[in-house]
Amino acid sequence: MKIYVSVDMEGISGVFSWEQTGRDEKGSEYEKARHLYTQDANAVVEACKENGVERIVVMDGHNGGYNFVIEELHPDGEYIIGHSRRDILPGFDKSFDGVILLGFHAMAGTLCGILDHTQSSKTWFNYFINGKKMGEVGQEAVMAGGLGVPIILVTGDKAVCKEAKQLLGNVETVAVKEGLSRNCARIIAPVKAHQLIREGAKRAIKRIKDFKPYIIKPPIEVRIEFQNTDVADGYERAGWKRVDGRTVCRTVDSALKIVD
């Protein structure tokens, strides 16, 4: 069995502020959060290894792709790090049995979603696939589904777990915190969160045959509404069709092309 783990920072246990994510500058709070990020990933790798997964590929998907504390990584995983990537999901193909979305966040505009955003917290406002509003959970589900691979587990705050259930239905989720606003959270101790993540991964692996890929057949219309017109200007120059002042769209022939 092969499992691909896509990791983001905003939904990691104990993370609730932009300062922790390193979005604006990589200070001391970001350095602390890197350890939380690594420990959540290790909990997934440990659970996978203990429950019959032969190969676990973990992709550092946050910001520049260099957030793990490498010296602390679990020895049973393989890790994809670094920037200037040719693919959105490097190392991923149809040979995987399932995808785990670890530390994900709710889509832009979600009430009480901790650090809610879609793709860019500074420039994107809304994102749609075939007219359906989606966030990053939806994006990864569509891309994985394009290769026939299901999402089996989503971890993050309560808001993203609800979003995942609404979109995917039969998916395991683990809420490691609850948003009281965009920047305020009710959290649990990381050691408890790691236990819950391990248990969630175990449940997902034990019933992996129950999950179905989320498939949207091409052609696929992608529409992005930005926060400002100048960002839309740039996309229009790159070949996207201008819909209005802040919105562009294009049609793609593959689920793997829904995100630039």
Write the layout of secondary structure elements.
Elements: E1 2-7, H1 18-21, H2 28-50, E2 55-60, E3 78-80, E4 98-104, E5 124-129, E6 132-133, H3 136-146, E7 151-157, H4 158-168, E8 172-181, E9 184-187, H5 190-206, E10 220-226, H6 229-237, E11 241-244, E12 247-252
Parallel strand pairs: 1-2, 1-4, 2-3, 4-7, 7-8
Antiparallel strand pairs: 5-6, 5-10, 8-9, 10-12, 11-12
Keywords: Aminopeptidase, Hydrolase, Metal-binding, Protease, Zinc
Active site: 117 (nucleophile)
GO molecular function, one term: aminopeptidase activity
CATH superfamily: Dipeptide transport protein
Top-tier CATH class: Alpha Beta
Q: Identify the CATH architecture.
A: 3-Layer(aba) Sandwich
The total beta strand count reads 12
So what's the overall shape?
A: globular
Structure write-up:
Helix content is 29%, strand content 26%. By secondary structure, it is α/β, with parallel strands linked by helices. The protein has a single domain (2-214), classed as 3-Layer(aba) Sandwich (Rossmann fold). The strands form two sheets. It has a seven-stranded mixed β-sheet, with helices on both faces. It is globular. The two termini are 30 Å apart. It comes from bacterium (Candidatus Ratteibacteria) CG01_land_8_20_14_3_00_40_19.
Give a brief outline of the structure.
This protein has helices at residues 18-21, 28-50, 136-146, 158-168, 190-206, 229-237, and strands at residues 2-7, 55-60, 78-80, 98-104, 124-129, 132-133, 151-157, 172-181, 184-187, 220-226, 241-244, 247-252. By secondary structure, it is of the alpha/beta class. Helix 2 (28-50) packs parallel to helix 5.
